[in-house]
Amino acid sequence: MVAYHYGKNTALALWGSGPAFGMDPNMVLSWHYYGGGKALLEEIYKATNIDVVSFLYGPMPTQPLGWFKKPIANVAQLKGLKFRTVGLAVDVFKELGTAVNPLPGGEIVPALDRGLLDAAEFNNASSDRVLGFPDVVKNCMLQSFHQSGEQFEILFNKAKYDGLPAELKSIIDYSVQAASADMSWKAIHRNSQDYIELKTKDKVNFYKTPDSILKAQLEAWDKVTDAKSKENALFKKVMDSQRVFAQRAGSWQNDYMVDFKMAWNRYFRQPAKKA
Known about the structure:
The chain has a single domain (2-268), classed as Bacterial extracellular solute-binding protein, family 7 (D-Maltodextrin-Binding Protein, domain 2, 3-Layer(aba) Sandwich), CATH 3.40.190.170. 35% of the residues are buried. The protein is built from eleven helices and eight strands. The mean pLDDT is 94. The strands form two sheets. Strands 4-3-5-2-6-8 form a six-stranded mixed β-sheet, covered by helices on one side. It has a two-stranded antiparallel sheet with strand order 1-7. The chain has helices at residues 25-34, 37-47, 89-95, 105-113, 125-131, 133-136, 158-162, 166-200, 211-231, 233-256, 260-268; strands at residues 52-57, 66-68, 82-84, 99-100, 119-120, 139-142, 152-157, 205-208. β3, α3 (89-95) and β4 (99-100) form a beta-alpha-beta unit. It is an alpha/beta fold.
């Protein structure tokens, strides 16, 4: 994922971290391929002397705030919390007062089990279940802006890629698009199944992250990105490009898209029991 190999060039992380000015993960891919993001990513790789050809795919659903030993109700409860995250989210959660430890995936659950962490986030219902979170923690907070729309990435050595015939380049291009579509469909199927099993078989308690915490994340994100924009011209260039695209695309989506939750509630939400 772009978010995880940016190293010292934090501009790369903007393809996989933060609220992206209200764009969902599929809209971020739209910005990448049709709104100037792809050219900016190529510029970043060139500036860092990384000789690759990049293909982004696989819009990833919003990740949970994380797994907590005790559910939290307000921002104050984040203060001093030993928390695992990665990418630009490290800066965001530090701004919120947590003691961040960016442990690799395989070390998270053992650290939670031994009390080295109070809480942690990884990715989604399926991968979190496989990693073993429900074996050591029974509270998961859903919804967050720290990684609300990541993407996967395929990299090719540029010299090798440039040497391929046009037909093979086209096959790669369309194969990435097909893999992207299939991954997004499969994620809906697998994550929804595992979400149910986490609740029923693993007895996990799910809570919606309070709006006060979500708003605090946005405020922290603005502070972090404002500072990095002043330090890094490419970071600011990416942010400016995302902002322009998000204003247009978000206006269209917010005005055109029906509220699907209204229809879902009509058919599946149980009416409140009368006292």
